[in-house]
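Hi F.,

I've been meaning to write this up properly since the lab meeting, where we talked about keeping a consistent format for the predictions we share between groups. The idea is simple: the sequence comes first, exactly as it goes in, then the structure tokens exactly as they come out, then a line or two of notes. No screenshots and no reformatting. I'm using this chain as the first example so we have something concrete to point to.
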Amino acid sequence: MNPTTLAFLALLPILVVGLFLVVLRWPASRAMPLSYITVLILSLGVWQVPAAQVAAGSVKGLIIAGTLLYIIFGAILLLNTLRESGALRIIRRGFTNISPDRRVQVIIIAWLFGAFIEGSAGFGTPAAVAVPLLVGLGFPAMAAVTAGMMIQSTPVSFGAVGTPILVGVNKGLSTLKGGQTEIGWDLFLSGIGQKVAILHAACGTFIPLLVVCVMTHFFGRNRSFREGLEIWPFAFFAALCMTIPYVVVAHTLGPEFPSLIGSLVGLAIVVPSAKAGFLLPKNKEPWDFALKNEWDAEWMGNVSLEDPKDIPSTMPMWKAWMPYVLIAALLVLTRLKSLPFLNLLKSWEIKSGNLFGTDISATFQPLYLPGTIFLIVSLVACLLHEMSGEAYKRAWKDSVKTMIKASVALIFTVPMVQVFINSSGGTEGFEGMPIALAEGIAGTVGSAWPFFATFIGGFGAFVAGSNTISNMMFSLFQHGVGERIGVDPTWIVALQAVGGAAGNIICVHNVVAASAVVGLVGKEGLIIRKTFLPFAFYALLAGSLGYSIVWTAKTGWLNAGTIVAGMLVGFVILIIFRHMATSPKDSTR
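Output, unedited:
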């Protein structure tokens, strides 16, 4: 079978997702079973993968789905605990004191706090923490999920203390290690991480502005991009407060800490700046959503965040925030290799062994998963906030109901992914579906590959739900393509890692998980429709910059990559200046 035909067949499960989930707006609980059936037919009928291997991939997917549901349940339980205790009301008041402007709030919570949680934990944890916090502050559930998905881009390559680089790229390129010393190999990985940070910083500087513009356009009273553009100076300021230290840390400390330290520095600068009104429009009403009874029904989840009538009237701010402080502290302490907690928590491991006699295995590390931290902090919050047994019981009951609704979509989504990934080794001798698709594209585009490298990384994350897995699948392939077209292959691997991070913006099972936390099950396709263009912008800008960098030595700096990148950035600048020219003259302070 020729590579183009094979690549098209490998794409079919994704086309099914795109058609039914995004175009026809089916809920994931209906669309994903069709995608699973499609990948089963291809695996057994075209790739001729042994049935035992398909079954093993499916079972591994179910185990991973169970871990995701565990994380989702813990996040929902913490949210409902804080609602029942009255802490959410106090936190809402605290953010209003920083700035009542919802555009500022989404930048602080989603972009900066979300990046911190990503840097410490990964696992899609930012959506499980930041998204419900936004909903608790009065954001429509769909607006919160959309924002939470969009920021899962820039910080992701250095998420979970550098796992996508230190594990994903490391394992993906392990066959290149050869006779290198550990120090030499570490420097090689660190060099790739530095390239990744440069590309992310260039693209990520636009993310806060994109987040607020998407929010005001889709969820604002006036459905206006212009209302988001009004705070472009503050949005770029907040972006640079994170991305500048992010790049510095990547070049000085390595891949573990760019997202973690960059976001903390950003929070330390941006929060007091926002409180002082720095770079925010003066003499204008703070931007807010319309009244809740004017919201579209599809924006709202079925998780009730109304304040219970029997909660205490007062609570100190420190006590309300303490559960989130504990989460942040525990996530960091349990992820640092220099501390003993990481190995201790990973020591209890439930492992399946070789499923059905294949080399596919699955593991479950309950103590290490963020879900356990959420459960512990929920119990601490119950005691700290002096909740009644009845209130805590209500929190558990509501959380179980919400988690069950998310389970149907995930028990088909994740097994589909695992069968897709584990499709090599069939009697036909074809490469696995992901590699077959990538090779088909590479054979067609040739020297223009840098434009496509980020989209392949994004495709891997879209399917697998993980930048780490995308890097493991494609890093060696990307390195080989770089060598074949005669450019520095480490830049191509960096483009893979950046694209893999950006793919989290549209990843199906991350959207399913984030939606489940706030009761938006069934609206996944609507969210992906809103986040696809930000993903495409991010991947195309990074790919253009990568093309410009790798071909400058041979073609000069004025090449196709520079032109496309200049057009993308110029388009954003043009929109900002048009807004400034047509807006009333507002001063900033």
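Notes:
Strands lie at 350-351, 363-364.
The chain has a mean pLDDT of 89.

If this format works for you, I'll send the rest the same way.

G.
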